[in-house]
């Protein structure tokens, strides 16, 4: 296969996989009153509070999109903004106990899907899939950085 065909095939597979993950995430999140996007933003701040820009970077989406969801989560009492010691104006988002509880309620469905995927793929192939996807993302980041430098040199 030529490079262009490999890129097209990879992109189409990733787009399809993204759609599949969004669909199953919506099905898991809906019964607890969340959407897949709300769950994704809450999940990004479970370990530590982050500014909206940090959440957007981690998720690979726009800051404006995350800001809209963060504001909705805060308005529904699922998350809250707290002061950021490193930056006066960029507040940190953190889940409230209500938000953490909602994510915990998704846990059994999440664990079931993980077990079913592990059964289907096998543990080694499942782990290899993660490594390949992470490496692909790193390569895309490296190319984007290279393109940004090339653009500014023009």
Automatic annotation (TrEMBL):
Residues 3-138 form the HTH marR-type domain. Pfam families: MarR_2 (PF12802). SUPFAM superfamilies: Winged helix' DNA-binding domain (SSF46785). It comes from the Bacteria. This is MarR family winged helix-turn-helix transcriptional regulator. It comes from Streptomyces fildesensis.
């Amino acid at each position: 296969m030529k490079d262009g065909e490999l890129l097209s095939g990879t992109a189409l597979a990733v787009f399809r996989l993204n759609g599949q993950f969004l669909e199953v995430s919506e099905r898991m999140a809906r019964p607890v009153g969340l959407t897949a996007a709300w769950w994704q933003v809450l999940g990004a701040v479970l370990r530590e509070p982050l500014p909206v820009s940090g959440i957007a970077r981690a998720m690979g989406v726009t800051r404006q999109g995350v800001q809209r969801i963060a504001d909705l989560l805060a308005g529904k009492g699922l998350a809250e903004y707290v002061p950021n010691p490193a930056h006066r104006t960029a507040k940190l988002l953190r889940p409230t106990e209500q938000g953490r509880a909602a994510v915990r309620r998704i846990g059994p469905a999440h664990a079931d899907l993980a077990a079913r995927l592990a059964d289907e793929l096998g543990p080694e192939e499942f782990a290899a899939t993660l490594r390949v996807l992470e490496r692909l993302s790193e390569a895309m980041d490296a190319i984007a950085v290279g393109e940004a430098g090339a653009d500014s040199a023009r």
